[in-house]
Write a structure and sequence with these properties.
By secondary structure, the chain is of the alpha/beta class. Helices cover 40% and strands 21% of the residues. It is built from 15 helices and 22 strands. The strands form six sheets. The protein has a seven-stranded mixed sheet with strand order 14-15-16-13-12-18-19, with helices on both faces. Strands 9-8-7-10-11-21 form a six-stranded mixed sheet, sandwiched between helices. Helix 6 links the parallel strand 8 and strand 9. The protein is globular, with a radius of gyration of 23 Å. The structure holds NADPH dihydro-nicotinamide-adenine-dinucleotide phosphate. The site of NADPH dihydro-nicotinamide-adenine-dinucleotide phosphate (NDP) has 33 residues, from helix 7 and helix 8.
């Protein structure tokens, strides 16, 4: 199936007529074509957004909210079609797309449809000076949203929903590796009555189409989710132009397990936090630190549970793990596994490619557990972003904390303990943007989401996202009494 750009409410071919192959990772086959858009397409999307902005930014909150809710309803109505498309494009199990990705895309619109009606700004009375200050929060204008391939519609809408709720018009680019559900979203927006030009979706490569969005002089804010290296490059282009930037980048998240935790709950959740979506979630706990006194038992039980995971065709109901997203990504992940021994690591489970019946050319890999003995190895310092976790033991709280923080990333951490004092100490001292205690990836969309260190700058979620997508202006009114 060939897809098109969505500009000014219409589906159009790229101006240069160039396309990129779109792969189905479960079969390793080309199944469609994606526009390889150029600067000219981005300019056309910008012009549509600019034209739509005066009217959209003056549309009442009630009306904006109504349209966003309609988009959410239509996403849920088309859940089956969207989940099938997401699974085919990305390789993820269809069950996951149905339970998580697509419902969450609808929730993103529902949440910001409601949040915008509750968003308010501060007023400060300057007592004794006969003045009142208040803050006007105005939409920025045309903003850019760029998202990755791992949770395609989920992360794409996580940016678009707050941007348009706040009154902006958007030029957006999904990953060229997984463009299908973003394409389908265009049809949904038209059906929901979103005015022409409020959302424009331009497909293409990061280095050309994405770069053109970031470098566009009049796209004044960029919300980006992706790799740390790409984030650094985007910052270097956007910063001299004084653009607002929100960067949600890579992670190398610790999963810290103490002997006093609820063992069975921890075990089941740790299987999920290690291998959900083939380990391709920025929040996956890829470094597992286990208190020494339960380490050997944990190793036995964890291997046993992981061995039960079924790697298979994403469209099969009983598949727990589907295909990795691309041949290049599979090769990257496999190279870390193959290099493990050289770094003193011991593969205690998995490590091999999997051949799936009727999908022999798909990009499948076993869930892989590697025992490491040195936190400084690249397996524990670099983001692998696949179904690979390391396990390592620790003796004391101090050692666990030191190991957890000894990494360039700082997105999230998971802590398993029933000790309240330890919970408070770790929550304060872990160098991450998010700490989960006795759970994982339990999301409340009102909370700030983002990382520290090389995991990014800024926060999304809740009012933080609406603050990002608006420009605060201080109004000071003097009135002699
Ligand atoms: P990339 O950084 O490769 O790409 C992300 C997006 O940026 C894609 O749409 C890509 O386009 C685009 N892009 C690439 N180069 C440029 C450029 N020079 N200018 C503008 N846009 C560009 O990340 P991946 O897609 O490989 O995603 C995986 C990464 O995303 C992991 O590091 C993961 O941790 C991170 N991530 C972070 C999350 C967070 O919330 N912190 C959540 C989810 C993922 P294209 O692919 O089409 O070339």
């Amino acid at each position: 199936m060939n897809i098109q750009n969505y500009i000014n409410g219409e589906f159009v071919n790229p101006i240069n007529g160039e396309y990129i192959d779109n792969y189905n990772p479960s079969k390793g086959e080309i199944y469609g074509q994606t526009p390889n858009s150029s600067k000219e397409d981005v300019e056309s999307a910008y012009q549509a957004a600019k034209t739509a902005f005066p009217s959209w930014s003056n549309t009442t909150l009630e009306e904006r909210s109504k349209i966003l809710l309609k988009i959410a309803d239509l996403i849920l109505e088309k859940l089956e079609v969207l989940a099938t498309a997401e699974s085919k494009d990305n390789g993820k199990p269809i069950s996951l797309a149905k339970q998580v990705d697509i419902p969450r895309a609808a929730s993103n619109f529902q949440f910001f449809a409601n949040a915008i009606t509750q968003f308010s700004s501060e007023a400060h009375e300057s007592v004794g000076l006969n003045a009142v200050n208040f803050t006007l929060r105005q939409p920025i204008g045309v903003v850019g949203c760029i998202s990755p391939w791992n949770l395609p519609l989920y992360l794409f809408t996580w940016k678009i929903a707050p941007a348009i709720a706040a009154g902006n018009c958007v030029v957006a680019k999904p990953s060229e590796i997984t463009p299908m559900t973003a394409y389908l979203l265009g049809e949904i927006c038209n059906e929901a009555g979103l005015p022409k030009g409020v959302l424009n979706i331009v497909h293409g490569l990061g280095t050309s189409t994405g770069q053109a969005i970031v470098a566009h002089p009049n796209i004044k804010a960029i919300s980006f989710t992706g790799g740390t290296k790409t984030g650094a490059h985007i910052a270097s282009v956007a910063a001299p132009m004084f653009k607002k930037l929100s960067l949600e980048l890579g992670g190398k998240n610790p999963n810290i397990i103490f002997a006093d935790c609820d063992y069975e709950k921890m075990l089941a959740t740790t299987v999920r936090s290690s291998f959900a979506n083939q380990g391709q979630i920025c929040l996956c706990g890829s470094r597992i630190f286990v208190e020494e006194k339960i380490y050997e038992q944990f190793k036995i039980d964890f291997i046993k549970k992981v061995a039960e995971l079924k790697v298979g065709n994403p469209s099969a109901k009983d598949t727990n793990m589907g295909a990795l997203v691309s041949a290049a990504h599979l090769a990257k992940v496999k190279s870390y596994i193959d290099g493990a021994k050289l770094e003193g690591g011991k593969i205690v489970f998995g490590g091999n490619k999997v051949t799936v019946e009727n999908c022999e050319n798909g990009y499948y890999l076993q869930p892989t557990i590697i025992e490491v003995f040195d936190n400084k190895c690249s397996l524990n310092q670099e983001e692998i972003f696949g179904p690979v976790v390391t396990i390592i033991s620790f003796k004391t709280d101090e050692e666990a904390l030191q190991l957890a923080n000894d990494v360039p990333y700082g997105l999230s951490a998971t802590l398993w303990t029933n000790n309240l004092n330890r919970t408070m100490q770790f929550s304060k001292q872990l160098q991450t943007g998010i700490v989960w205690v006795n759970t994982w990836m339990l999301r409340d969309l009102r909370t700030p989401f983002g990382g520290v260190k090389n995991s990014g700058v800024g926060r999304e979620g809740g009012f933080e996202a609406l603050r990002f997508f608006t420009e605060p202006k201080n109004i000071c009114i003097y009135s002699p009494s």
